[in-house]
Input
Amino acid sequence: MPPEQRGPLRNQIRRLRFERDEMTQHALAERVGVTRQTIIALEAGKYVPSLALAFQIARAFDVRIEDVFQWADNGASG
Amino acid sequence: MLASQKHAWFTVAVVLSSVVAVAALVPVLGLPRATGAFGLLGVLGFGPLFYRKRPGEVVTDERDAMIQRRSLAITAAVFWVLFVEFCVFAPWFYYGSDGAVPVWMVQSSVLVAWVVVSLTYSVATLCQYGWGGADAA
Output
């Protein structure tokens, strides 16, 4: 995951993009219906997506939402 | 650059141009008549053209909407503070001998308020976008 991501929410968008035939940010943005700048902000951890957008991104990668987004203190019992 | 960023830069350019025009005309026409140059603000009416839809292109998304909401909140706060300060301090300087506020003062207040609101909203928007650039987040 990109080292510059701050805050408790982490994401694997950049890694998943490159694992999908090096999908471009523009291609992902088109697929989920946002601008390329929003994808840039997501990957940099500067923007927290809505639940709907998070699900759309997970669906675009054909993975579960937990595989795309993680909470930093994941693993704590609760 | 996103449509919202372009619109914000356009607004800043038009507002600053009108302020410069007014300032340039003050020595020539005097203050009340020079405020006619604020008519340049009418160009802001072309702002919505930045948001015209193009086939297959996302013009604005949820992040843009969030930034616009925040900019609106910041603008409302700045305007309110300045408005209250103006109401408190302006009478000290502009009340006439019969206690009336000059007509040009009322007109200018509306125009200045428009300038402040437009400028504040645009600057707040640009700050949140990181002042533009293709990869600014």
